[in-house]
Each structure stands twice: as C-alpha cells, then as structure tokens.
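queue> holo job accepted (magnesium ion)
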Amino acid sequence: MRTAPTILHLDMDAFYASVEQASKPSLRGKAVIVGGLGPRGVVATASYEARVFGVHSAMPMAQARRLAPNAAYLVPRFEVYRAISEQVMGLLRALSPLVEPLSLDEAFVDLEAEGAAWDAESARLTGTKLRSDIRAVTGLTGSVGLAASKMLAKIASEEAKPDGLLLIEPGTERALLGPKSVRILPGVGPATGDHLRRAGITTVEEIVEAGEDELVRLVGKAHGHGLYAMALAHDDRSVVAERDTKSVSVEDTYDVDIHDRVRVRTEVQRLADRCVRRLRGARLSGRTIVLKVRRYDFSTLTRSETLRGPTDDPAVVRETAARLLEAVDTTGGVRLLGVGVSGLADYTQEDLFAQAAGETHLDDEDTLEEPAREAAAPAERRWPAGHDVCHTEFGHGWVQGSGLGRVTVRFETPDSAPGRVRTFRTDDPALQPADPLPLIPAGPEQSEVTAVGRKASPGSQGTVAAKE
Ligand SMILES: [Mg+2]
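queue> job finished
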C-alpha cells in the first residue's frame, strides 16, 4: 500500500436532489425527494432537508410520503444529471489520467499518476481546489475523501458529507475503522451484516479479533479472506480507468409486462444464477455487477456496482443485483430484465490511454430507446413532476403537479427569484415541454476559454485579454 493519502474519492452531495434545488429556487432549503412516483416507486435521492424526516435512497416512495408529506416529489431528469456529471468528470480528468467513475456522481482519482499530489499537504490542497472548482463550474457541492487506499478514501468522503473534505493520515486507518459497524466495509450488505451479527460480530475490530479462519468458516473462502483484509485496512486495489470491454450477461424479454414487484425480484435472482453459471463455465470472474431493466415505455436503465474484488460467487451476484434493483422504479411494468458481470480482464496500458483520451464509462444510464412513447403513454406522463416546460406568455417553468386534467406550473429559472404558481388545462396549447436550463450561465467559462485562446496567439490583443 502507498504511504501517502493520494487516492481521492469524490461523491457529490445528494446529487439529483441538489441539482433540482439549484434549478428551482423555490425548493432551496426545502425537503426534495427525487425518484419513481408511482405506487411502487422508490427514492433515488433525498435532499438533506428530507433526510431529517428519515427518508433515504432506495426507500419505497409510499413510505417516504408518509414520513415527509410536505416534501417536493420529483421525477428524475437524467439528461441534466448526465450533463453535469460530464463537467465534474472533466475536472477529475484534468487532475489525473486515472479516473474510475463508479456512478454519475462518484469516482476515484489517483492523484499520483501525473504528480497532482505526492504527500498529505499537496493532496489536501488538490482536494480543496477540486471542491471549489466543482462549485464554480456546476454550482453544486461534492465531498472529498483522501487516503492511501480506495476503501479508506471512500469511507473518508462518506464521513466528510455534506460539503466537506476528510483526509485519513496513513497509519491511523485501523484506529478509525475499529469501532465502526461492519457495514462500513465495502461488500458487507444487509445479508452479510446479519450473518456476522448472529455470530456476535458487529464492529470491524470484532472481525479482526475473530481471526481469518473464523471469518472463512462464517462467510466462505472468497468473501472471508477479503473481509479480514479489509478489517485490517489492507487494500491494494489500484485506480483503474475502466472500460467496459468484456462482460458476461444474460437477459430475458417477457411476452407480458411484469407488474408484480416480488416476481421482478425472483426473475432477477434467477438471471443472476444463470449469469454465474455462464461465468463459471468460461472460468471467469468479474468485479462489476450490472442490472438492466427495460420498462413498459421502453425506457431502459442499467445500474451497476463495482465490488472490491472479482467474484464468481452466486450469493454475491444475487445480493448485488437485488440491491441494484431496489433503486429502480418498476412501476408500470417491466418487459425485459438482464444481469451481467463485467470487469473481467486485466487492464492493459492500452485501455488506460484510451480512457485518458476522453472515453468515459458511467455506471448510470437511462435512455429512451424508442421514440414511441408519445402515443402509448398515459395522459399524466406528459407532465412529469419536476420536468421543464415553457409557456408562451409566462416563460420557463417546471411542473409542480398534474391530475384531473390540470397541470400546475411554477415559473422560475436557476437564476431567478422563487417564482409564482399557475394552473392550466393539461391540453393548453400555450404550454409545451422545454429543454432544461443550465445551472450556471455559460458566460464566465466561455470568456476564460477566449482569453486563453487570445493569449496563445501572439496578436496585439494578447495583453488586453490577459487582464480580463
Ligand atoms: Mg452522491
């Protein structure tokens, strides 16, 4: 393991909800919940104001509504989240060619790869500057963890939340981990956590005390060795600029959409087992578990989670796939499900350079593959809560709610004061869906680019531009 805390983990704070608050002035400082709004939808992100009421990600939406009845409930606007994610990942890639995205709002960066940092002081300065750059470019806050390993860097960013930075000095890792719950370790989900608790192990220190042999006896060989190593804060994984080149996956299309959530879960478990059989047949194992869901309206989501190490353990693949499913709204029905394992091969230099050249792989995807939704979609889906609209007279706004032939719109923009609410008929021709507005006007960034361009050319305007 390296001796300097030069692995950085960035995690944007309550990402989807924060984007919505930045877009919608009337929601700032308020409880905001983004997710599937149908009867069986789940929470994707809750703002910190909503978390006070006990609402958290992957919670059933119905339960969230009981806990926080007055919160704003919004449907995700993935195209906006993806665009902002690109800006953030761009800032990370400016620090190092070794950037490993885990999802739209989370990534590891190896700061030593090109000398962005080499010791605790330079790492802290780089992390601090990154946080202020992210705020300047996106208007949002992200938390940064810095440590000598990926596991500790991720734990550090979690501890730093919200809007913070935590650096774990090498040598202090075990003292920090010891008293914490076993659940803090990557890969220890509810099932493993329960299993360990029944054996009397609740803290990381108790894993160390139990010893490696006991761990292997409790959770199996593959998981046991890894778990023991993590409890000792041993983590040698390097940051890999990952390209999703190789994977093993299986999927099923259903003649009739599946509506029953229990049946969806069962199908995912079945697919996970089939995928592992295929994986083992090819004598492979992989680090990233991928879940694919195509919904009744042909929108297709893929969700993935990257594990600490490669696995071909059916229990691990099942547990991970089930966890990924919990964050997916299957309200309205599912017509295709798939489970895959990727990250199978060793990463070559070639891969890293391709990544450095700007090719990114993000874990979160939400694409509308078919444009056929207009005709088939039920009326209320034409005005999803939180989505952008434009009115010929009142300008840009967002849908606050709709039903019974009416749609309520709040007219405001990211840089306006909180706006007024007006109600229209859902078929009012003056009201149209609109493209989202940028959170930060493009102005300052563009003028900076212009200034650099002018400075580079030895023209007479050079000195003028440099002063701007
Ligand atoms: Mg986050």
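queue> The pocket of magnesium ion is lined by residues 11-12, 15, 105-106 (CB under 6 Å).
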